[in-house]
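Dear colleagues,

As part of the handover before I leave the project, I'm documenting each prediction I ran so the next person doesn't have to rerun anything. This entry is a single chain, and its sequence is reproduced below.
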Amino acid sequence: MSKKDLYRPNVAMIIVSESYPHKKEIFLAQRNDLLDVWQFPQGGIDEGEEIVEALFRELKEEIGTDMVEVIAEFPEWISYDFPPRIAQTMRPFIGQTQRYFLVKLQEGAAIDINTKHPEFCDYKFVTADEALSLSASFKKDVYESVINYFKEEGLL
């Protein structure tokens, strides 16, 4: 298995509220299996699945709606390593390589984290700085890179 194969392909999304661009509020959700870990929705890309297809599937699975407009895409894959405790449950992967999207909730989109297989127990809309302060330490560098890129592009 090559080093590249040790990273699970994943799609992740920074979701802004329907008030965007007037308000630049970012959706952040609290995991139900890791105490005090807040994150952006994300999920694996299935074999043979297109990235955008995975994006909409994961939105529906994690927040109960796929009623979003894609605003932008981070221009490259970005990776992080799992901490040892998480790595044990994600074998054979040592981390994830992600494709990030900035998406806006459409008017009337209803978030419902009580999905068939809930991953989150709470959510809120926060500023970009709050998202960084609440994020898990092992994802912080990725979050900073992606948020800073969208800020530099004038999107956040």
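The longest strand covers residues 95-105. The mean pLDDT is 94.

All the best with the project,
I.
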